[in-house]
Amino acid sequence: MNAITNNYKKEILDRICYTDLVYERINKKLKIELSKVEIEDMIFAIINETDKSKFQKTGKNIYITNDERNVRLTINSYTNRIITVDDLNRKTTNR
């Protein structure tokens, strides 16, 4: 895995995009019921507050791990499209 630079963080913040299905997926995986705007605001805040050392690129995806919120975002590095959000607390309890 390679660390991502600050410039890439800015690019993600400037260009992040969503599909209609991802909103539903995020609500389901995090067990929440947020509107599209609320989800976009939450994702932007997570990316913005996460230190660049927590951005890891593997293949075509970038994984952004925010320990304070216990979530990991998966973003396509070519399109800057959010793919999913994983609840790290739930993953830990399933081990």
Q: How would you describe the oligomerization state of the chains in this entry?
A: single chain
Gross morphology? globular
Q: Could you describe the largest sheet, including whether it forms a barrel?
A: 5 strands, antiparallel
Largest sheet: spatial strand order: 1-2-3-4-5
Low-confidence stretches: none
| Overall number of strands | 5
Characteristic key phrases:
95 residues, alpha+beta, five-stranded antiparallel β-sheet, 5 strands, 43% helix
Structure overview:
Helices cover 43% and strands 25% of the residues. The chain has four helices and five strands, in the order E-H-H-H-E-E-E-E-H. The chain has a five-stranded antiparallel β-sheet with strand order 1-2-3-4-5. Strand 3 and strand 4 (71-76) form a beta hairpin. It is globular and about 30 Å long.
Question: What is the structure about, briefly put?
Answer:
43% of the residues lie in helices and 25% in strands.
Per-chain topology:
Elements: E1 2-3, H1 6-15, H2 20-30, H3 36-49, E2 55-58, E3 61-66, E4 71-76, E5 82-87, H4 88-93
Antiparallel strand pairs: 1-2, 2-3, 3-4, 4-5
